Amino acid sequence: MAGVFALCAAYAVYCLVTNPAGPITTPDSFHYLNMTPIVPLGYPWFLKVTGARGAIFAQPVIFAAALAFLGREIVRATRSVWLAVAVVAGSMIVPQIREYHASILSESLFLSLLVVFLALMVRFMHRPTWRLMVVIAVTVGASALVRRTGFASVPVMLVMALLQRHQLSRPAHESPVGAGARRSFGEVGLFSVAALAPFAFVIGIEGAIAPVVHAGAASSLMGRHVFAKAALIEAAAATATDDPVRVALDGELEQTFAPIRQMLARAPYHVRAVLTIYYETCLQGGCADKARASTREESEARQTEVMGSAGFARIRRAPLNFLKLTWLHYGSLWTVNRLRHPDTAADLNAFLATHRPLPYEELALSLGPDRTLEFSGSPMVRYAQYAIRAIAVLTAVLALTGVISALSGIRLVPPLGVAAVAALSVHAGLLLTALLAAGFTRFLLGLWPGIVVACAFGVWAKLKVKS
Prior knowledge:
By secondary structure, this protein is mainly α. It is built from 23 helices and no strands. It has two domains: 2-171 and 179-217 and 382-466, no CATH class; 222-334 and 342-377, no CATH class.
């Protein structure tokens, strides 16, 4: 145990010693620092307490403390210090995660809350209690206040309750025939309430406070994301309407952005996946400035609401195309350094050479019109991609195992149950991300500790079976 704590302490010291002179900022940092209505309140509140400079000291310390807690729970559950060390080291080894701790972005705090969730989940899968489920639900609620990806853990908690129903019922010799099963389902219901009620309470508090904080102008990124996704899919023409704003927005979606869709349709699949990320991001911002102006709304909240309504209507007319776009992003989330993959770089260069200028090129790719685009591949990226695909398949199998076992009542040994739930939390988070956002790999890194726990416990469960 001391070795686990020493490793976490060393990581915190390393981060503090190597911190930059000031926090790393991105365009998203503005929204967190100024508590704009489009972001959840959790991380801006955190920044109000720590300040920007204080955040880059607090974030690595909190993450290291969360990892120490996870390591402690693993040792208590498995009696294996080596397993705990492997999980803790694997969770901190990715260099980009260290950068998050020095950045004004919600990733670091979300990662810490994810690690706390994983630690509590390890304890629950070995010794479930409804009080522990309440603590887990509050943790999940807190993570959703920091990043909306936390909502993906709600069905994961229900799967946890179903997986543990065998431990919730009395032994057969202590109960009348059928009583154990009835008690099991009653306990599962209690655990489900223990999962849903605290989570809803936490989110409800934010819902009540947000309009006050933002002077009645509470908003979100949902409308922007929905409008951007609607612009990227082919759909049937909108029905006639007397609303001039809806007519203008439908015209933007159907005609103005048609060249983007036509260009993407001509691109090879892996090239399309790359370009789609950049165009969807642009359609949330600069590429949609004209559409935003056509809403005739001054407040950002109302602009987003009106554009989101038009986007939802278009998606409802083409749900299959929306699912295809979601699958494209889901694959992108499991892609390593896409611009450096030898095959992608070569095909992207060839496509750009024959199709420039691209629609909205300057905005979507942040380039001047005369700048040459040229990408070079690295063989190492190809091998890294093989590894990520193997991890994707392994965790998908584990997640599916957990879901099937939960629905069918098949009992899993605790280590395999931990692996299955951790894998499910990763895939659920990525699926929600693919549905609502673009497929940037940083979203995968935001769930990295879940991948480490899933793989480590999956291997551990296999070794335990052999022994």
